């Protein structure tokens, strides 16, 4: 005779049954939790793979932008500077290429700053812009901007290590800025160019204003050219002191730490490309005191008496450290909290 098992417990209620197994509510909850956890794990893996794919797609699109932008820049410069003309072509060929290195980082005024620079650089026929973002990868804003700039350019990305990042309220001088980006550009130059290439390397920060005349002055450089910089170091002008008879630098009028080996602003000098390629130790460093980055790179290349004063023996100002004032976006912050940005669908 077959023995039957009662489905009623001692209290007279029927227990939960799942797949032929007797279980209580806690077991059911555990099983449901495991099912959801497993589904979440699968979703996370799929999302992670999807994100990796999208990152690759973004990288490919940015590279395509660089290619299209380079082609557009070449065509624009051929048309704008009359390079098809035999006389112009020969004249431009004899001039060194100005390689301007610009570190940049994401902020509200970034595109405005880059636009101001680009409008000046378009007037220089023998020009190559190396823009290096402080970012793990190239951003769409800068990629699109460069693609449509009409300039010949190289777009790089190099993130500053977290321990060297400035905090929100840190003063600019507290930690070295632009080291990773400038060194990345120098690495690119050394990997892609030869000492036989005629060129001049200039560190063109995006918070400065440049006169076209400055770049014509750079064409004269044999080693390292220097000139005055306006509105920097607490002065109306910071400049090398030039001897009119010998055309040599005999001192500097810098007010801040004038005992530096080269008391000069980053915008106050440019270096012959050949010397940078030959002196591979000429780099910027995180291990020097504030205000010594210029001295750190120049000490590998020249001595003070080898500096070449330009801009009419350092009596003319062709670059200003203007620094765009940070915009007041307190109303925008209120809109962001409400989920209503003013720039939805608009790149500023």
Could you explain the architecture of this structure?
There is one protein chain. The chain is α/β, with parallel strands linked by helices. Helix content is 37%, strand content 18%. It contains ten helices and 15 strands. It has helices at 25-80, 86-94, 110-121, 140-147, 179-192, 212-218, 273-278, 293-298, 311-314, 330-337, and strands at residues 16-18, 21-23, 97-104, 127-133, 153-157, 199-203, 209-210, 224-226, 229-232, 235-238, 240-243, 248-252, 269-272, 308-309, 319-320. The strands form five sheets. Strands 5-4-3-6-13-8-14 form a seven-stranded mixed β-sheet, with helices on both faces. Strands 1-2 form a two-stranded antiparallel sheet. Strand 11 and strand 12 (248-252) form a beta hairpin.
Task: Please count the helical segments.
Answer: 10
Low-confidence stretches: 1-9, 16-21
Q: What's the alpha carbon Rg, rounded to whole Å?
A: 30 Å
Q: Please give the order of strands in the largest beta sheet.
A: 5-4-3-6-13-8-14
How would you spell out the order of helices and strands? EEHHEHEHEHEEHEEEEEEHHEHEH
- Structural class by helix and strand composition: alpha/beta
Helix content: 25-40%
Number of strands: 15
The overall pLDDT, averaged over residues, is 88
Tell me the strand percentage band.
15-25%
Straight-line N-to-C gap: 86 Å
How would you characterize the largest beta sheet?
Answer: 7 strands, mixed
- The global form is globular
């Amino acid at each position: 005779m077959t023995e039957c098992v009662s489905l009623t417990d001692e209290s007279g209620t029927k227990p939960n049954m799942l797949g032929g197994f007797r279980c209580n509510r806690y077991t059911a909850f555990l099983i449901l939790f495991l099912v959801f956890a497993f589904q979440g794990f699968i979703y996370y893996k799929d999302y992670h793979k999807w994100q990796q794919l999208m990152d690759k797609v973004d990288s490919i699109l940015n590279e395509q932008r660089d290619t299209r932008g380079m082609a557009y820049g070449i065509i624009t410069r051929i048309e704008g500077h009359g390079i098809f003309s035999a006389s112009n072509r020969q004249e431009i060929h004899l001039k060194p290429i100005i390689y301007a290195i610009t570190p940049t980082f994401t902020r509200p005024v970034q595109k405005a700053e880059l636009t101001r620079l680009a409008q000046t650089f378009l007037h220089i026929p023998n020009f190559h812009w190396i823009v290096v973002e402080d970012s793990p990868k190239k951003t769409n804003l800068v990629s699109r901007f460069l693609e449509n700039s009409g300039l010949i350019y190289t777009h790089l990305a190099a993130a500053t290590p977290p321990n060297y990042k400035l905090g929100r309220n840190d003063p600019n001088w507290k930690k070295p800025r632009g080291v990773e980006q400038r060194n990345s550009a120098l690495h690119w130059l050394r990997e892609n160019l030869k000492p036989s290439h005629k060129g001049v390397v200039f560190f063109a920060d995006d918070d400065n204003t440049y006169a076209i005349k400055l770049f014509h002055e750079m064409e004269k450089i044999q080693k390292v050219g220097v000139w005055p910089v306006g509105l920097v170091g607490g002065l109306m002008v910071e400049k090398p002191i030039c001897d009119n008879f010998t055309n040599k630098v005999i001192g500097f009028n810098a007010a801040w730490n004038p005992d530096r080996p080269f008391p000069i602003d980053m915008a106050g000098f440019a270096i012959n490309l050949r010397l940078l390629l030959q002196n591979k130790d000429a780099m910027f460093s995180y291990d020097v005191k504030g205000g010594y980055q210029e001295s750190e790179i120049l000490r590998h290349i020249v001595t003070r008496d080898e500096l070449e004063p330009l801009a009419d023996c350092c009596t003319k100002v062709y670059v200003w450290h203007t620094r765009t004032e940070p915009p007041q976006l307190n109303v925008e912050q209120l809109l962001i909290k409400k989920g209503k940005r003013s720039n939805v669908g608009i790149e500023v």
